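queue> holo job accepted (adenosine-5'-monophosphate-propyl ester)
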Amino acid sequence: MIKKKKLYYPSSDFKKNAWVKSKETYKKAKKDPVKFWEGLAKEVYWRKKWKKAFEHKPPFFKWFLGGKLNFSENCLDKNIETKKNKVALIWEPEPSDERPRYFTYYDLYRKVNKLANGLKKMGVKKGDRVGIYLPMIPEAVIAMLACTRIGAVHSVVFSAYSPQALQVRLQDTEEKILITADGYYRGGKIIDLKKNADEGVKDTKVKKLVVVKRAGNKVNMKKGRDVWWDDTISKEDDFCKPEVMDSEDPLFVLYTSGSTGKPKGIVHTCGGYTTQAKFTGKWIFDIKENDIFWSMSDIGWITGHTYSVYSPLLNGTTCIIFEGAPNWPVPDRWCQIIEKYAVNIFYTAPTAIRMFQKYGDDLVKKHDLSSLKVLGSVGEPIDKGSWLWYFEKVGNKKCPIVDTWWQTETGGILLSSLPGVGPIKPTFAGLPFPGIKFDILNNNGKSCKSGEKGDLVILPPFSPGLLRGVYKNTKRYKKTYWSEYGDEVYFTSDIAHKDKNGLIRIVGRSDDMIKVAGHRISTGEMEDTVSKIPSILECAVIGIPDEIKGEVPAVFEVLKGNWKKIEDLVVVEIKKGIGPIALPKKIYVVNDLPKTRSGKIMRRILRKIFTNEDLGDLSTLANPESVEELKKTLK
Ligand code: PRX
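queue> job finished
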């Protein structure tokens, strides 16, 4: 990478081989975004070409109308035509002494077809929903693809979600079949997944459980209801005719949390999602056929769908899925994996980067990470310190960092500078993907000037992969996404600003905003400011009730080592970065912050501990012990 002032540009070597190397692509896309996406869609395999590319009846829209295709055919059949024996999927189990499993495209194809036939035999038809409650094992990928083969709509539920969380989702989507496993490894222990599944299917319409034998733990198989995965597929034929789907037929549902308690089932459709997943991956990570792609995200999240699995397969490359935690049993397990498989593209979240950083540089230095070519970041804003560490220590100053902004709702990355074009600016996600029109609007609904913060919105024609609905809840779809600025403007709920070059920086969620004496203050922005203090490793800011000002910020911070007078530093930094209005009422130095297993800090829990509210279900936390400690600190 070449640094010019504060911006980074690709080296001439990188640029030479990149899929996209000039601003020309942006210009063309801007001129006619619909035509541009049509051009990309032509590289997807369609059974029948679309008649009309885009239709907009606000707040509804469609892409590639009349087009017919099958998703699994694009991931598998198309690849086995030319690279039958190429490795499609590598599975790294958590126990380091267990052997990895390798699947060629042909292996994967046969397994998917067999399961597809097995599911059909159980009565699954096009349009039926199938629940998938599986850990990071190859069968999860096989199950997802098998559903897409027969036109069933998969709904993956994160395997670390509690039975109650599973039940709520199953009740909403009314699955008759749930695919699960006996157990899996996490932190050296076997997690009894089947027990959770048994509890979760109570009071739902689930009639059959297909159970993968993974951990060999003892499970109760209910007669007439539960069947082993192996028995489901063993006698099945290894070809299943792919169901020809309409471009706008649903492909999958994935639940995500919203500002109200009940999760929303986000609906994605076949044609648009496929096109977008293929090309955002190809261009943003500059995926080449022989690349080894490792996205750390669990398939329970949208990143796990689109980039841990689907985009690499649509692009005919090799992906790795990993069962365990990246710091188990040794803190540099993630480095071991990169080295072992000579990973070229590595995609993770800033929280993980900060955790890796906490363990110190020596661990990274021990490993040969020279295979890396592109590094990705996702899910939350990345602070400059972590960005630089990732760039210098992991990527050895040669790998572009793609800071990718997107949401469960967008289905794929819509904002990230392209590595072969740049510019890349630390803490800025960068430029909109070609063909995507973003705007940043102020309180009056007008476009913000550069530097001015406002609501990040997406304008027509949006993107082919943007959600088409909230499952069985049109009211919520309209209210959440299409009401803030009218029904022709997609409201992201994120606050952002733009620099003079048009690079966009995400400040944080508008629903994590706090109002201090009537002024809007972003907790994300405060965290960013506080994180600039070198001794602070991680921090979270929440709004706490205040008699006079309504709400005031409280700062929680995890330090690198022992520091004195940290409170004073925080006050100075906030005054400097935002102004006295944002000064925190409380500053707490803590050892750990409650986080989900995907690494997001649970500010909601911090807030509840503060206000002494019922904490609800803590089973999704990676570190529930942090809660007890916080309770003591806040007493
Ligand atoms: O606030 C943005 C943040 O994550 C939100 C979407 O969360 P979710 O649907 O769980 O999807 C996460 C993975 C795609 C966004 O509204 N977010 C996502 N990516 C970034 C980000 N914030 C800052 N920078 C990013 N690169």
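queue> The domain at 517-633 is CATH 3.30.300.30 (GMP Synthetase; Chain A, domain 3).
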